[in-house]
Amino acid sequence: MTTEYASTGDPRRGIELLWGLREPARKGPKPRLSVERIARAAIEIADAEGLAALSMRRVAERLGVTAMSLYTYVPSKAELLDVMLDTVYAEVTGRGDGDDEGGWRAKLARVARENWALYRRHPWLLQVSTRRPVLGPNLIAKYDRELSAVDGIGLTDVEMDLVVSLVSDYVHGAVRGAVQADALVERTGMTDEEWWRRAGPILAEVLEPERYPLAARVGAAAGAEYGAASDPERSFEFGLSILLDGIETLLRAKSATTAGHDSGAGTDATS
């Protein structure tokens, strides 16, 4: 799978485009195109066929215009990719009715599941390295919303950033298996359960359980449970629970350290 890289264009040109400062000024009738319309067309292509199919020419064909006409709005494919990313980030920036419900754990779990669903809707996101983030309004809003899940729970600002990054990195890794499973079913026309029903009996003919006792026992139990070789969504939820447990351990340790310092200060003051 080819990796694309976000924010590879000119930083000023890209940020101005993301924040709506490069929309061409025109007089007369409303123009046929806009940056948003171009981005939506590009997203539709990427959703259906992956980033390998994306080009300025393909987007132009989808919109019924010439490729050259796109460059009036979007300077290059590099900036187009950045706008695409920021556009889909808008899907998880709005604060819903349930955002304030529950404690930090419920809020972080909600953040993780929303990002999981975002990757499932737009699997091409896994093909983009965001080591240099797309500094658009929707990314900033997304980051702010995710930070609010851990605001005021005893973390420093840097720790808040690290926790949000930890959750984001976990989702990015965990969802890859689910996206690959989706693509595999589409490519082969066979579900994992169907494949397992065909492959399982053949494996039983050649596998010697006494040579691999743990693999045979655990693999049989897992296969019977999942009806497949694995269950990406169940693995995601299991790992998320363990991850949140780890963050809770961190918070307890910080709370105990703070209490110890306060106790020590009180003892010194009265001695």
Question: Which descriptors apply to this entry?
Answer:
Tetracycline Repressor, domain 2, 271 residues, Arc Repressor Mutant, subunit A, two-stranded parallel ribbon, mainly alpha, flat, 2 strands, 11 helices
- Radius of gyration computed on alpha carbons: 24 Å
Q: Specify the number of helices.
A: 11
How many beta-strand runs? 2
| H/E element sequence | EHHHHHHEHHHHH
DNA-binding region: 55-74
GO molecular function, one term: DNA-binding transcription factor activity
Keywords: DNA-binding, Transcription, Transcription regulation
Pfam family, one: TetR_N
Structure, described:
The mean pLDDT is 91. Strands 1-2 form a two-stranded parallel sheet. It is an all-alpha fold and 271 residues long. The relative contact order is 0.10. The longest helix has 39 residues, at 232-270. The chain is flat, with a radius of gyration of 24 Å. The chain has helices at 11-18, 35-49, 56-63, 67-70, 77-89, 104-121, 137-147, 157-188, 192-206, 213-226, 232-270; strands at residues 4-5, 128-129. Helices cover 65% and strands 1% of the residues. The chain starts with a strand and ends with a helix. The chain has 2 domains: 4-90, Homeodomain-like (Arc Repressor Mutant, subunit A); 96-258, Orthogonal Bundle (Tetracycline Repressor, domain 2), CATH 1.10.357.10.
